[in-house]
Amino acid sequence: MRVCFIPIDNRPVCYNLAKDICATDESIELFIPPREYLGDLTKSANADYIIDWLYHLPHIDAMILSLDTIAYGGLIPSRRIDDSYDEIKNRIEKIKPILQGKRVYAFSSIMRISNNNYNDEEKEYWKDWGKKIFEYSYNSSKYWHPAKTDVPPEILQDYLKTRKRNFEINKLYLQWKKEGLFDTLIFSKDDCAEFGFNVEEAKELENLGGRTKTGADEIPLTLLARAIRKNINIYPVFTEPEYKDRISNYEDIPIEQSVMEQLELGGFNVVDNEEKADIVLLVNNFIEKQGELVMGWDTIPYNKHFSKPDKPYAAADVRFANGADNSFVAELFSHQPLPEFGFSAWNTSANTLGSLLAEIKVKFRASNYNDEAYKKLQIIRYLDDWAYQANVRGEINEPCDIRELMKPYEEKILKALYEGQEIPDYKFNYTYPWNRKFEIEVVITK
């Protein structure tokens, strides 16, 4: 199967993860643009190069397309660049001939409104006015009329102008969908609250026939799962079933709904008992409120006796955002072997679920399975989602050499994954691709 994959940007979870998942099945030939032409925290993707790259592709079976990369240069530039609607429209229309007659699985973001004054991923003025703009959006949406605000008029005007431009581009994609250019088109809702301009835009896109989904970064991976048209019966099991109606941080729907939406989008069959299942999806959900270690938001950790499913299973750990639940991971390691179909605890609940479902689909239906590639993928997930995000990240103040801090985790993970087998002589290195603590890149060599 030949798959074209256009990521949102060059982060490891957007770029490397897709490659590592596909490497599990050597029958998948992945076409992905060179990493240096994709966007990062400070620069936009080279859209002209990527468009030309698309024109020179051989025959492919499916295209996973992050439309923001073509339109704006990436997810972060979609909030920052000042290009006009006409400039963006002219750019994206260059790819219309490429999409004709192909199975295209595309997504575009609904511009987020983050409730903070951090401008790492926003325009410069967000550092002074971010929370105020969020409040203006929230209250205007909640009470159905423009709220009072002390945000300077010129800043508010610029913000609203950028929102309107992106919204009009999304409506243009709906027209493309009616023309038959997309097999699947998703509008992503990132960093959601109950009210806001983004919520209103999502409702309008739905009224116009669009399909929206909570999440963002993971959606290309969920669409990758969807593009692999193989039937898999999944039985979701929650570690805290009485709390599956609670809403995760940065999301606007209950965790059970988030799980079901991800499974539906990924093309899985949901069954109602373990006996019917090919794979059990074990979801370590939270009691009352999702925690987040880096923000100091605590929650009750996993504190039950772990019962390993009788069927092969995968573990989605969403008890905390941005990192694993140490108590849950300890239980997994004490009941080896580790989950046969993977582990994930990456960022938001949607991020965790969507990326894990891609791993499940590729491994379970692999025509030419590569066990070494799969084990390396799992090593990276445990080192990043558990070792770093839930532990080492809290021990450092800024990007630095963490090799010694990571060694105890490396040894434990390798011992568990290669139980009874010879452990390869892997070498590990860790880099900060965006020069911030938020994400690391795990590099494994022999």
Description of the molecule:
This protein is an alpha/beta fold and 446 residues long. It folds into 2 domains: 2-224, no CATH class; 230-445, no CATH class. The chain is 38% helix and 14% strand. The protein contains 15 helices and 15 strands. The strands form 4 sheets. Strands 2-1-3-4-5-6 form a 6-stranded parallel β-sheet, with helices on both faces. The mean pLDDT is 96.
What can be said about this structure in brief?
Helices cover 38% and strands 14% of the residues.
Descriptors:
alpha/beta; 6-stranded parallel beta sheet; 15 helices
Structural class: alpha/beta
Tally of individual domains:
2
- Report how far the terminal alpha carbons are from each other: 29 Å
Helix content: 25-40%
Oligomer: single chain
Fraction in beta strands: 5-15%
- How do the strands line up in the largest sheet? 2-1-3-4-5-6
Write down the Rg: 21 Å
Largest sheet: 6 strands, parallel
Average pLDDT confidence is 96
Number of strands: 15
Unreliable segments of 5+ consecutive residues: none
Blueprint (SSEs and pairs):
Blueprint: E1 2-6, H1 16-23, E2 29-31, H2 47-55, E3 62-66, H3 67-71, H4 77-80, H5 85-92, H6 96-99, E4 104-110, H7 126-143, H8 153-178, E5 184-189, H9 197-207, E6 212-214, H10 219-227, E7 233-238, H11 255-265, E8 269-270, E9 279-284, E10 291-292, E11 313-317, E12 320-321, H12 326-334, E13 343-344, H13 349-364, H14 371-388, H15 403-417, E14 427-431, E15 441-445
Parallel strand pairs: 1-2, 1-3, 3-4, 4-5, 5-6, 7-8, 7-9, 9-11, 10-12, 11-13
Antiparallel strand pairs: 14-15
Helix pairs in contact: 1-14, 7-9, 10-13, 11-13, 14-15
